[in-house]
Design goal:
ten-stranded mixed sheet; alpha/beta; elongated
Length: 346
């Protein structure tokens, strides 16, 4: 696959993509160009490799498996889970804005750990990242060497120095042009396509492929799903093989949700072993052979449940809860739960 057309005095030809991740760096006022390039290259790579495409940004890509705005609740789930569902292509059309959002909704160490973990695991997991960094020129070492190709639109010596390019290697850049920089190679002038293509044009993505639904897709699932609840970041109907006794954290009225779940599965009347008021969160422990339901949980309830979980989803600490959503815990796992329109509580 070609990243673009090299433009030289004696040589013209395609610059072939080497299979690694791509970082795009432009001035802040050219953020729209960086975003277009990120989406264009990501869709072309997805089309060429037939990998699913996941997009975080305001720009839309036809045929993407996941397509989330930067501030969508599912963004953290996507970044945390994608390396377990490779191979795939991940397009970030505004990486600085994404990192700012993560720092806002997570503790700073958590946000940094999530980002560095993504960069460190991506190549081994078969995740190809195409990320736009408008307004930030940095050397490849600043991103842990995660990007094997950098597309730079440095316009002056100051930007070149920050990007690790010798000022003597700068070129006058026309519209659509940039320098392609790879380790051990001299920067090469190229024209980069800005037009996206449709991934999987002849191989449409299967509905059961892993993806994180957008807020509008979640709303449609809540309206149209027969199951009274949806669980996890993918908002899937539960597939439990057998019934278990329940612990409710919150109100006894929430037993109506559990009754609706048992009716949906065709199970007997549920056994409610205990109802723990949310202000009695210090009583929360790990209950074996039970399921635990906590709707609209407080911060203390979430923190207590996380303490007894093996690998709690990072997004739990960043979610905004309400009466129609919460968490379900079973053994040492905890995940989100969303009531649907068919549920008795909505």
């Amino acid at each position: 696959m070609s990243l673009g057309l090299e433009e030289g005095i004696t040589r013209h030809g395609p610059i072939v993509w080497d299979g690694g991740s791509i970082q795009i760096q432009t001035s802040a006022h050219e953020a729209h160009i960086a975003a277009q390039w990120a989406l264009s290259l990501a869709t072309r790579i997805a089309h060429c490799t037939r990998h699913p495409l996941h997009v975080i940004g305001e720009e839309s890509a036809e045929g993407a498996a996941s397509q989330l705005p930067v501030d969508a609740p599912g963004v953290i789930d996507l970044l945390e889970g994608i390396c377990d569902h490779g191979p795939a292509v991940l397009a970030l059309t505004d990486a600085p804005q994404l990192r700012s959002y993560l720092s806002h909704v997570l503790a700073a160490p958590q946000a940094e750990a999530l980002w560095t973990s993504l960069l460190a695991r991506a190549r081994r997991a078969g995740i190809i990242i195409v990320a736009a960094f408008a307004g930030r020129f940095t050397p490849s070492s600043a991103a842990l060497g995660a990007f094997s190709t950098r597309i730079m639109r440095a316009r002056d010596a100051d930007e070149a120095v920050h990007a690790g390019i010798a000022p003597g290697e700068l070129r006058a850049l026309g519209e659509g042009q940039a320098l392609i920089v790879r380790p051990g190679d001299k920067p090469r002038l190229a024209c980069i396509p800005r037009q996206s293509v449709r991934p999987h044009s002849d191989y449409p993505a299967a509905e059961d492929d892993w993806h994180i639904p957008s807020p509008s897709q979640v709303a449609a699932l809540v309206r149209n799903t027969r199951s009274p609840i949806l669980i996890g970041p993918t908002y899937s109907a539960p597939t439990w093989a057998r019934s278990l006794p329940w612990i409710i954290i919150g109100r006894r009225d929430d037993a109506r949700i559990i009754e609706a779940v048992h009716a949906h599965f065709g199970w007997e009347t549920p056994q409610i072993s205990d109802v723990i008021p949310e202000d009695a969160w210090t009583r929360i422990t790990r209950w074996d052979k039970h399921r635990v339901l906590a709707l609209n949980p407080t911060h203390n309830v979430i923190r207590a449940l996380i303490q007894h979980s093996h690998t709690p989803p990072l997004a739990l600490t960043a979610r905004r809860w309400e009466s129609t959503c919460g968490v379900i815990s079973e053994g040492d796992t905890v995940t989100t739960v969303q009531l649907t329109a068919g549920s008795v509580n909505t």
